[in-house]
Amino acid sequence: YAILSHRWGDEVNYKEMIRLMKMGKEGREKVRQRGGYQKIIKSCEQTRKDGYRWLWMDTCCIDKRSSSELSEAINSMYRWYRNSKMCYVYLHDVDEPDFPTQQEFSQFGRSNGWPEWFSRGWTLQELIAPEKATFFNKDWVSIGTKEDLRSTLEDITQIPWAVLNDEQVLRSTDSSKRPGVTQIMSWAADRKTTRVEDRAYSLLGLFGVNMPMLYGEGSKAFQRLQLEIIRVSSDHSIFAWNPKA
Which portions of this protein are annotated as coiled-coil regions (predicted)? Predict the structure, then answer.
C-alpha cells in the first residue's frame, strides 16, 4: 500500500466518505468540490499509476467518532508509515515544478521560509518512518524523492541522513549510531500541532513507546511521554530537555 502525508485543510472525514453515495446530488457535489476530496482522488490516481493496491490517508481512514479507534490509530501510525511501500508527500503551498532549495520567506513566511509541511508536528514521523517517499507540488507534479533531496532535507530538518535513510537507526543497539533522546526532541522543537497533546502523541513512534490518548490533558501529555521514555531508555539526556526552550 501507499500512504499520504500532507498538511490538513478542508478535508473529507470518514463519516462523509462512507455516506457519500447516500447523499443527495447537491450534498455530494459540495463534498467533491473540497480540496480534501481532490487530494483523495489525486492520491488514488497516483497509487494506481504506481501499481500499488491500496492507499491509506489519515483524514478519511480513521473513524474519529470512536475514541478506541483513534487511540489505536495514533499508537500504530508510525508503524503504518514505516510498512508502506511508498509515502506521497503533498506540499500544498509549492507552486513551482521544483523543490525549494533555499529559504523563501516571501512565500513561506509563516513556516520559517520552507513549505508548511516541514513545520508541523505529525509530519516529522511521516518523513522518517517510510523507506521511500516522493514529494509533489500543489498540482501533483513530482518534484523529487527522499533520496534525491537528501542534502536539502538534512538542511531543513537537521536530521542526519543516516536516520532519514534507515529509521531502524533509532533502535540500534550501538549507542554510537543511535541518536539521543534530546537530539530527537530537538528535531521536533520548532514544529507545531493544532492540539497541545499532539506534540507528545506525534512522537510516540520515534521513541518506540505507547500510551493511551487523553485529549484534554494539555501539557501533561508531554510529561507522560517523558515517563514512558524513561521506562524503556537509559538515556539520561532526557533530563536536560526543556520543552519551553
Answer: none
